[in-house]
Amino acid sequence: MTTIQALVLALLQGITELFPVSSLGHAVVVPRLLHWTLDEHGLTFLPFLVMLHVGTAVALLLFFWRDWFALARGALGAADPMHVKESRYILALIVVATIPAVVVGYVLEGFLRNLFGTPPIAACFLVVNGLVLMAADRLRAGLPEDAGRPISSLTFVDAVFIGAWQCTAFLPGISRSGATMTGGLLRGVNHQTAARFSFLIALPIILAATVSQLLKLHHAHMGWQALRPAFLGALVAAVAAWLSAAFLMHYFRNHESWALRPFAIYSIVAGMLSLIAFRFL
Fold it and tell me: What's the predicted TM-score (pTM) here?
């Protein structure tokens, strides 16, 4: 893997992990469009993926540090009783929403990615992702103006529902953040709250993926030269993810009526253009 390839892949990971346009779909489609031949079984590729996830997780932790600090204080009882109760309840919601993806990922992730992980199929799912986002925006537009609900008002049924939607992101081309936001919108949460909850439950999912990949590295022995692209990728992914989170939280706060539509259009157009390009490659 060249330095340019590492930078492009890290930038893609940092941006598309949070933008509702599928990081996995882009990771499958873009190298094919650029005629890159990446050795996914090479000695340095897995550490590179691990460090991209670490960078994204660190960015999410830093950006939402106030949320996590408040939740931690409440969970440890270092706050007033009402805040303690609310914090523990929100943490329980995050755990419940994470369980479906952990279970499905453990049982079916490899099967799903091997079955659907070719560039043309990933491009098709990018189109599907766009259609889902478009539909979610239309459904949200039909709800009353006061239908927005804070995270603390969600029920465990809501959390399971959102977590089940998150599982669709194991299909390359379906966005994890887009799927969880869709689940939130369908339960009456507005775009900003749906995005915040989506990003909060992203951290344990990304950490779980990182641990899963690390377990495959326990026999690997690599020097600094081999790991340099991984650390460079982690830094780029972290900066891109932090900037993406900052942009998206501001964007969703100010574009409630049609927030997902630009991402839907992008996904549809990118998927269709990729399919046309693959036809003539």
Answer: 0.85
The values of phi and psi at residue 133, to 5°, are -60, -40
Surface-to-core class of residue 275, CB atoms within 10 Å of its CB (0-12 exposed, 13-18 middle, 19+ buried): middle
Helix axes 156-166, 191-214, angle to 10 degrees: 60
pLDDT at residue number 230: 79
Q: Residue 267, exposed/middle/buried by CB under 10 A (0-12, 13-18, 19+)?
A: buried
| Helix (H), strand (E) counts: the chain | 11, 0
Could you report the per-residue pLDDT of 37-85, keeping only the tens digit for each? 876 656 667 677 778 888 888 998 999 888 888 888 888 887 788 888 8
Least confident range from 48-52, 62-66, 117-121, 202-206: namely 48-52
Judge residue 171's burial from the number of C-beta atoms within 10 Å of its C-beta, 0-12 exposed, 13-18 middle, 19 or more buried. Answer: buried
